[in-house]
Amino acid sequence: MRVLVAEDEEILAELVATGLRRAGFAVDTVYSGDAAIAYLSLHDYDVVVLDRDLPRVHGDDVARHLVANGSRTRILMLTAAGSMEDRVAGLDLGADDYLPKPFEFPELISRVRALRRRSARPAPPLLEKAGLRLDTVRRTADREGRDLDLSPKEFAILQLLLEADGAVVSAEELLERAWDAHADPFTGAVRVAMSKLRGKLGEPALIRTVQGVGYAL
Questions:
Q1: Which of 59, 115, 119, 162 could disulfide-link 127, Cβ–Cβ 3.0 to 4.6 Å?
Q2: Which residue pairs, CB below 8 angstroms and at least 24 apart, start in 98-103?
Q3: What is the pLDDT of residue 175?
């Protein structure tokens, strides 16, 4: 799951991003509205955590841009403007949820996950196939009752493969969905993570490589 944090206070932006990464999300951060629009145009985000009072391009205009372009990215407005009138205005602009500052991290993470489930590609909280069980809320995974102890990247890859339900997922899509914008597409990061995931899944093998296309369960 990929999230964009758009917040002009850089320290707060990095704190939010760090907390979301620890919860297993791939996160990019920007500090202005024009940068938010640029990133949203380049990458397919599930959720944008959007401060309303952004420099250069106001957060409200970022929300309008997403709505006007029919984006499937869900909008969580995170802002100090927390009055009822502010919340109503934000939701009327097209925001899917509104969380005033100050906030508690568990609530932020829960709201981001809820928005992911409401996206165009909904993810049920429990994914099961071929003896695999993946709990996307508790962030646990097991095979035939054996705990898999997955890293965040391995968990994200397995979630994407389970959601595809047997369809092939390309390495490019895995890189887009499970890594942030700083990932180098030429490092072989997907191949390395896939190898480690296969080792943890054990035998019989569950992930097959479709040569020149991608991977599938």
A1: 162
A2: 103/78
A3: 82
